[in-house]
Amino acid sequence: MAVQVETLEKLQRRITLTLPAELINGEVQSRLKKLSRTVRADGFRPGKVPMSVVTQRYGWSVQYEVVNDKVGQAFSEAAGAAKLRVAGNPRITAKDEAPEGQLAFDATFEVFPEVVIGDLAAAQIERVSTEVSEAAIDRTIEILRKQRRTFSQRASADGAAEGDRVTIDFEGKIDGDPFAGGKAEAFQFIIGEGQMLGQFDQAVRDMKVGQSKTFPLQFPADYQGKEVAGKEADFLVTVNKIEAQHLPSVDDAFAKSLGIKEASVEALRADVKKNLEREVKFRVLARNKGAVMDALVKVAELDVPKALIDSEVERMTAQAREDLKQRGIKDAEKAPIPAEIFQPQAERRVRLGLVVAELVKANNLQAKPEQLQAHIEEMAQSYEKPAEVVRWYLSDRQRMAEVEAVVIENNVTEYVLGKSKVVDKVLPFDELMTPAN
What we know:
Elements: E1 5-9, E2 12-20, H1 21-36, H2 51-81, E3 86-94, E4 102-111, E5 116-117, E6 124-129, H3 134-147, E7 150-153, E8 165-174, E9 177-190, H4 198-204, E10 212-218, E11 232-246, H5 252-257, H6 265-299, E12 300-301, H7 306-326, H8 343-363, H9 369-380, H10 386-394, H11 397-419, E13 421-426, H12 429-433
């Protein structure tokens, strides 16, 4: 089957498809006859509706369906014969002129690009590593203590201090007028833990039960409440209660309360270290993977199919709408979400996906069964019942596909780091664990 493929520009191609009109008409009549056996119409018994009525009512839609099916089949055969890797769906348009007894259509589409990966040996990539120190273990245990702390009302008349939980009433005004979210009663927060803006936190320190105070507060310019961002408010605060916190001692009983089998401080520290090392490993891998992907984008040369970018934009837009729905946003389906805001990210994702796919294919970096199993088992260790988590992953193809994608990316990361100029950097534990802004 000889197929003439016309190159329009870069990745865009066009094929002219011709189909015998007799083939289309014959299939239309066949489907209409089959439809007539079940179609219902007023004044006729089921199965007795005249073909003229069936044709009048359903002829156009059946013909449209048949043409779509036959043209789609013809395009698939033509693309296969021409050994084309089609990116996205073709745009089919009917031609006005066609050989006698034929119907002609133009199929315009894009093909997957040739991916040229440059010299990886010339790429310089920063590879980070992080050690879990004793100080990091101490800080984590301190967090565990705070999660299990208790509070009791102060017996003394001392003012509120660092670590105390205060219950207050407050009202804020800007230029003498109240504003939304600026008033609360019986509101609780812990002093010194960043739950309130610094000026507010500082103003409440040393206040006593029953005491009231008015103070100015400057909202940051980037404050999340845009209606007050950058403005100065006056707050009236009254302290109703002050409670001192009590942290559990780090002893064998504390270890037992956390479910440590050996119920000792040594076993607790070992368990914390093991969990931190697992978390550090995943974060370091994610950081290094990001650096590798950035390098791949820079060294690869390719044209990106617009059809794939558009498809990714649609997927990201749909996901954004779903996120709005999950957050309870009213009329999320109708919310205006400009497609162009996703365009740069969508193009990068598609570009990177094509580059990674080429690298995997050329260097046999596919995920092996033992790698998938090992990755799932490692993730499961952070759960209370690892065996159930492993079964949960293995029982679902979609979840396994997600695991496979991660393992392939890990293989690519290891391969690229082995080929490029690596600059090793030891990252402080706190810097690694602090989310990027």
